[in-house]
Amino acid sequence: MSTDDESFHPLGSEWEDELEGMLDDTEYDTELGMKMAQDAMRVTKGELSEAEFHEKYHEDVMEEFGEDNRPTAEAYEAAQEEAKGTVGRMLDKFGGDGEDTRRGAMKKMGAGAAAVGLGAWGTAEAGQQNVAESGGEGDGHGGSHTEAKEVHERDVQWGMTIDLERCDGCLSCMSACASENDLDQGVNWMYVMAFEDEVSSGGTPAPDVRGGVSDFNMLVRPCQHCTDAPCEKVCPTTARHTRDKDGLVLTDYDVCIGCRYCQVACPYGVNYFQWDEPDVAHSEITGPNDEDPQEITHAEYENGEERWVDSRSPRGTMSKCTMCPSMQDGQQGEERVGTTACERACPPNAIQFGNVKDERSDASQHREHPAKSRAVIDVYGFSGPPSTDTVNEQLSSDADLQTVLENEELGLDRETLAAMKAIQLASEGLEPGDEENNSILDKEQAVIEFVNAVEEYVNLESEENLSELRLGEGEASDANDLLREYAGNPTSKFKLLEDIGTHPNITYIGQEPGPEAEQVEGPSSYSDVTYTRSDGSEVALVDNRKEEVLDEGTVGDTGWSL
Fold first, then answer.
1. Is the distance from CB of 207 to CB of 489 less than 8 angstroms?
2. Beta bridge partners of 506
3. SS (H, E, C) 46-91
4. H/E stretch holding 353
5. Could you give the count of Cα atoms lying within 13 Å of 308 in the half-sphere of its Cβ?
6. Among 297, 342, 288, which residue's Cα sits nearest to residue 161?
7. For 104, 163, 432, 463, which has the most beta carbons within 10 A of its beta carbon?
8. Could you tell me if residue 127 is left (phi over 0), alpha (psi between -120 and 50 degrees) or otherwise beta?
């Protein structure tokens, strides 16, 4: 499905019509919801200011909801200077916590969801410029996308780099997400999709990439946690908000009234409405060590309060991917800070989560140096390189390159040792730091320490040895060339719908869907993958909640289906 000139929504007129029909069956004003969504996207594009947007709809929102907790024009202007998110803006203006009782009576509607073609996200230039051609691995997004607006600056912004060329479509990330958050069957907070399009010559396989299965072009779609999220701009209660301290776009379940305006305004189709009581009761939710549900569902805020924003939502509220705030707040242990359930579960390490503003984070390292990052992950393996003690035990002063390669305890072939030496040469010398889980730099440092230990016995930088390792003159450029050959040269970098100004905090590496992209059957069947919830129930994943669950008797609908 492609967009057209008559639709304001990036996913096209069919999707827009579906959203309009959805609002028609609720108790809320359809026309107001559609207009606000359209103007919220005008705000992200810079065609309308935040202040003008608030002023334009203040009276209508008050009349429809009896409240308008969106910050006023003055509050927006003041908070912009202090770089605060939605909650901070609201608190500055109103001096309260913004909590309000949810509406008790919700009018139920018939189930309905649109099937969205991947071409809705595609661009005509998709995949035409690879990373190396655009000026090197550290060259951002190839110069084809807009620069992020200088707003809402903060030291921490959680986000992801997702390497689509390493994704093997195993659906482990979806299973882990559903299990972590005790989701009802078919409420998928992320989707993994295989696709074919005209850009990839009728669905030819992606480039052969070490560490992943490349028989399919893949797209992984969680919430993008946009810096300028249209969904939060239309929320009358500030239930949908950006957390000041780390930029996560979350939903306060205690404040959400279920109007679904956020669902209409989201350009990515990631929202779900919880009609019936969730399958797993709140009292049954547990973390890795059977923590109190209150601890792992209520996230921490700057003013000392805790808000219910994590795990599955209660009846009558909206939900979506949260990027695991209970992990980021340290409530599941310090070792999980800077990680998410989906990242931890991904076998080929296709998902890299972290602070996208910190050059040391996994997300930044994989975004800016994908070939080196891939090589680090692969040569490190599960157990890491041999220790320096092992090197000292196995090598002596008369060792040479052949001695190293023939030593069974070291277990190295020429290609692996060359990649390790290339990692050392290409390294920027960054220390991992101890603020969060910077695992790629941790592994890189271990690889470099091993190479340094070997070089106490063998001069790997001699002309002869560099030639044997195919590293030219041992320059960083030679090393990067070898790493791209070893780990695969990324096709491109992109962000979904970046041109509309939402500034998503997920960067993709790999084939960007073109305007005619269509989903095809992937390597794994949803029905073959299960997840276990806190109540002990084991449930199979479902691709289309409407057709496979809701039409069988459950009332409600998803955000969208495939």
1. yes
2. 160
3. CCCCHHHHHHHHHHHHHHHHCCCCCCCHHHHHHHHHHCCCHHHHHH
4. strand 351-355
5. 15
6. 342
7. 163
8. left
pLDDT of 223 > 90? The answer is yes
β strands within 185-248, DSSP E = 191-196, 217-221, 240-242
| Interval 272-296: pLDDT, tens | 999 889 999 999 998 887 778 888 9
- How many CB atoms are closer than 10 A to CB 57? 21
Angle between helices 13-24 and 30-44 (to 10 degrees): 140
193 beta partners: 219
Determine the Cα–Cα distance for residues 20 and 546; give it in Å rounded to an integer: 18
Cα(181)–Cα(471) distance, integer angstroms:
47
Q: How far apart are CA 63 and CA 57, in angstroms?
A: 10
Distance CA 375, CA 211 (A): 9
Q: Which uninterrupted H or E stretch holds 463?
A: helix 463-468
β-pairing verdict for 158-163 and 191-196? unpaired
pLDDT category at 560 given cuts 50, 70, 90 is: very low
Residue 32 parent element (H or E): helix 30-44
**End-to-end Cα spacing for the chain:** 12
Q: What angle, 0 to 180 degrees and rounded to 10, lies between the N-to-C axes of helices 370-380 and 414-426?
A: 130
The answer to whether 497 touches 11, Cβ cutoff 8 Å, is no
Residue 251 β-bridge partners: 240
Residue 482 to residue 518: CA distance in whole angstroms: 34
Structure token digits, residue 559: 């955000």
| Run of H or E residues at 507 | strand 506-509
Distance, in Å, from the CA atom of 514 to the CA atom of 334, rounded to the nearest integer, reads 41
* 121-144: pLDDT as tens digits: 665 555 444 555 333 444 333 333
Residue 480 host element (H or E): helix 476-487
Q: Which string of DSSP letters, residue by residue, matches 520-555?
A: E--SS-GGG-EEE-TTS-EEE--S-HHHHTGGGT--
Write down the residue that tokens 């990324």 correspond to: 490
Distances in Å between the alpha carbon of 186 and those of 279, 284, 318, 519, 549?
12, 20, 15, 18, 7
Q: CB neighbours of 429 closer than 8 A, spacing ≥ 6?
A: none
Whole-model pTM: value is 0.87
Q: For residue 167, which of 126, 129, 205, 115 has the smallest C-alpha distance?
A: 205
What's the Cα-to-Cα distance from 200 to each of 119, 144, 465, 512, rounded to whole Å?
A: 13, 19, 39, 9
Query: Token pair for residue 316?
Result: 């009558």
